[in-house]
Amino acid sequence: MASGAPRTTSSSAGYAKGQMRREQIVEAAVAAYADLGYHGASLRKIAKRVGISHAGLIYYFPTREALLAAVLERRDVEDAARGGLPQSPGLGVLRHLLDVAAHNQDHPAIVELYARLAAEAITPGHPAHGYFTRHYRQVRGYAAASFAALAEAGQLRDGVDPETAAAALIALMDGLQVQWLTDPGEVDLVGPLRLFLQQVLLVPVDQPQ
């Protein structure tokens, strides 16, 4: 007699199991980089945390760089969820970017991972090149749409191009991170970003929308 419940095929069950294992590896990698730092968290140590062999780990992530990119993708999702990334462009998105910078000050390990991998991934063949291409396009897009919305509302200074302002903001964020990693006691990740925004906006960045 046929059951009314849908059957789970072996292929779909295998896919779900594989996705679960990938998530376990990424979670272990996030913890390992936080605990051991960029150089201390080897693939073998991460595999040990998951309870699988080194060969088992590289089945899912053939290179360390591919795993690092997955860690950063997870970080992006968490950043968006934690601060509640606004659906509509405007001041809320710019405030969200300030909140991300403030959060990063308490998490130097992930900032170091990002900065190191970003420099390495400029080559098109690099395993993380695709991640950074998508990441920068997405963040620039959020910022540019927000500057454009503010311009329409008469809240952006005359002569400020939204696309240029967005690229400058993201460049400032990344450049500050490198300076901060080099000399954390002397560099603030948030203050210069706030100053830049106030120089191009006609309203306080903290003004409610």
UniProtKB/TrEMBL annotation:
One Pfam family here: TetR_C_6
The keyword Transcription belongs to this UniProt entry's keyword annotation: yes
InterPro entries assigned to the protein according to its UniProt record, in alphabetical order: BetI_C, Homeodomain-like_sf, HTH-type_TetR-like_transc_reg, HTH_TetR, Tet_transcr_reg_TetR-rel_C_sf
Residue ranges occupied by any HTH tetR-type domain in the UniProt entry: 19-79
Superkingdom: Bacteria
Keyword DNA-binding set for record: yes
Alphabetical UniProt keywords: DNA-binding, Repressor, Transcription, Transcription regulation
Residues of the DNA-binding region: 42-61
Protein name: TetR/AcrR family transcriptional regulator
